[in-house]
Amino acid sequence: MPRLALYSLTVCALAVVAAVVSFAQGSWLGVVWVLLAGLTSNMAWYYLRRAKAERRAVGPTG
């Protein structure tokens, strides 16, 4: 797994936890965390797809 995708997934998971905690405390700041989680999940998806495309372009030899 590409390093940037792994970092993005980590930040996404932390943002989801922060959103749950914010909403549990009655704070609407959780909306910002949800948006950040959406952004970082899209970044992770992008980096995974880009790495897959690069592996396919290189071919089986290398």
What does this protein look like?
With 62 residues, this protein is mainly alpha-helical. The chain has a domain at 14-53. It is 82% helix and 0% strand. It has 2 helices and no strands. The radius of gyration is 16 Å and the shape is rod-shaped. The mean pLDDT is 94.
A few lines on this structure:
The chain is mainly α.
Biggest sheet statistics: none
Distance between the termini: 17 Å
- What radius of gyration results from the CA coordinates? 16 Å
Q: What's the total helix number?
A: 2
Order of helices and strands: HH
Q: How many beta strands in the DSSP annotation?
A: 0
Q: What amount of the residues lies in strands?
A: under 5%
What's the average pLDDT? Answer: 94
pLDDT under 50 segments (min length 5)? none
What structural category do the secondary elements indicate?
A: mainly alpha
Anisotropy-based shape: rod-shaped
Task: Estimate the helix proportion, in percent.
Answer: over 70%
In terms of topology, how is this protein built?
Blueprint: H1 3-24, H2 30-58
